[in-house]
Amino acid sequence: MTLINIAKRAGLFVTITPVFVGTAYLLAATIGGLIPSPQNIERHYPVENQQTFDLYLLSTVLHVDIAVPLSKEVKRQFAFLKDDGFPLSHPKLDYLVIGWGSRRFYTSTKTLMDIGPGPVYTAITGDTSVLHIIPSKDISKLPDVRKITITQAGFRSMMNNIRASFAHSTDGKPMMLKGISHGLSDAFYQAKGGFNIFRPCNIWTARMLRSAGVKTGIWTPTTYSLMLSLK
User: Fold this and answer.
1) What's the predicted TM-score (pTM) here?
2) What pLDDT digit, counting tens, does each position of 122-142 carry?
3) Taking the domains of the chain in order of start, what are their residue ranges?
4) 20 to 30 A Cα–Cα from 231, which one of 4, 13, 51, 88?
């Protein structure tokens, strides 16, 4: 075998391998979205005259955020946001839009146009995580949002799990990333858990939904697989 043939085969291998791995990943994600999660979570079934809450999922190609209504209980649980300058008491604030993700990728990527190779590599190989909180007006009439109705018990369970996702300093307070924002009056906080390609943002989103009693797939790393599992 000549050196030229070896080089050609090596080049073909380098070209085909990422395509094969990417295809296998997306196929596994699709299958994972179709198989219901076996995790033992509490089911919160609505009963007559019980208060319910409408959540909204805001999705992009890569990421799904959860928009939660700003109830009195949520204001109490997230009172620390106000101490950090977040407009929690703004009269036109109706929802908190919450997401979890890779610190480097999430904080540096406001839009798809901002994606760079460095943050992508870090997100794939492993990174620390952050929570992103965005204030929002009523989003129920926006196109391409998915409404999910849950019970009061389910809402309380999910908010407790979201609150438990924050990392804390030695004095017990959530740790805001000072000076980092997407210019939306938003805030980033250090979060618990590591981020990598097998445990990306939508895995966290699915886990929060399951804690509210919503059925999701067993492994939903992509937006498509998570939204598929909710069907």
Assistant:
1) 0.89
2) 999 999 999 999 999 999 888
3) 3-229
4) 51
